[in-house]
What does this fold into?
Amino acid sequence: MKFNFFIPTRIIFGENCIKENSNLMCIGKKALIVTGKSSKKNGSLDDVLSVLTDNGVKYEIFNRVKSNPDIENVLDGADVARKVEADFIIGIGGGSPLDASKSIATLATNSIKPEELFANMIKKRPLPIIAIPTTAGTGSEVTPYSILTYDKVGSKKSFFSPLIFPKVAFLDARYTMSLSYNVTVDTMLDALSHLIEGFLSVKYNNFYEYLVVNGLNSLKTCYKNVLDASTDIKKLDFETRELLLYSSTLGGMLIAHTGTSVVHAMGYSLTYYKEIPHGRANGILLANYLKFNYDSEEYKINTVLKLLGIKDIYEFEKILNELIYREGKIPEISIDELIKYSSIAIKASNIANNKKSVTQDDLLDIYKKSIF
It folds into this structure.
C-alpha cells in the first residue's frame, strides 16, 4: 500500500468560527482582502473587518475580482498588494475570489510571466493566505490550485504549488444562506463532480475513502432538500447549508490529491465560450461521463450511485436535468463549436487522470450526448 496525504491548511468549521477564533485571523500586520461584491451582503466581510480592527491589524480591500478572473485581473490585485505593502492575503468568496487570492499572493512576491506561472515556476514564497468560502462547491480553501481564464489557450488553465495552500480556512455556513437557487445548484454540482472525478481518478487511493463516502452521503441529503426548496430557496435550512459546505471541503481535499479529470477538462470550454457557470457545466456532462466509463469503472460508479441513494445512471441523469434546467435552458451550441471544444479539452493535462483511454472523438461524443 502506498499513499501521500498532505493538507497543511488549518480548517475551522462552524457558526461564528471567525469571531470565536480571531487569533488565527491575525497572521500578519497588514492584510489585502481579495473579494467580490457579495461578501458585503452575506456578512463575511463585516466579520473579518471586525476581527481585524479589534486586533489592530491594518487592511486594504481589493474587490474587483471578476466572475472568471484572468491574468490581468490578478496582476492588478498583485500590484495593489505590493503598493499597500500587505504581508498576507484574505480571500473571501466563491471559487473565483479564492483562486484569485492564491494567484495574487503568488504574483505579489514573484515578477513572472503568465507562462512561468502556469509552469509552476515560483521562485519566492507567496504571501500567506486565509480562505473564507461563501459558496459551497469549489473546495478551493483546501487545494493547492489556482484556476484562471487564459485567453491564449481559449480556456481556463491552472497552476499548482503546495505553497498556495491557504494557511487557515474559516468555514461558516451562515455566509451561504442568501445564495440563490442557481448558485446553490451550480456550486453543489461542482462539489459533486470533484467527489466523483476524484474517486474515479487513477491517482485515487483507498486512504481517501472517508472523503468520498462522507462527501457523497452528505450530498444525498442535500440534493433532495435543494429540489424540495427550489420554488423558494430561502426555505433551505441551515443544516443543509452546512452539509453542502462540508461536502465541498471534502471534495476539495480529495482533488488536492487526485486532481480532476474529463468533466473539468470539458467543462472549461462551456464556461469560457458560453458563460455557463463552472459547476453547471460539469453537471451537464457528468451522466454521460459515467456512461462512458462504466465498462471500466463499474464497481466505483455503482458505489457512487449507492452512496447518493440513486438506482442507476439514468435516474442520476434525470435528477441532474431536474436540478439544472429548472431555471431555464443553456445557450445553443453547434456541432462545429463542440468539435472545437473537444480539440481543446483533449490537450488538458487532467485527461490523463481518467483510467479508460480517451480520444478527441470520445470527448465529442460525450459533448453531443450531453448537449443535444
Summary: The longest helix spans residues 238-258. The chain has 15 helices and eight strands. The beta strands are 10-13, 30-35, 58-62, 88-93, 129-133, 145-150, 155-160, 168-171. The mean pLDDT is 95.
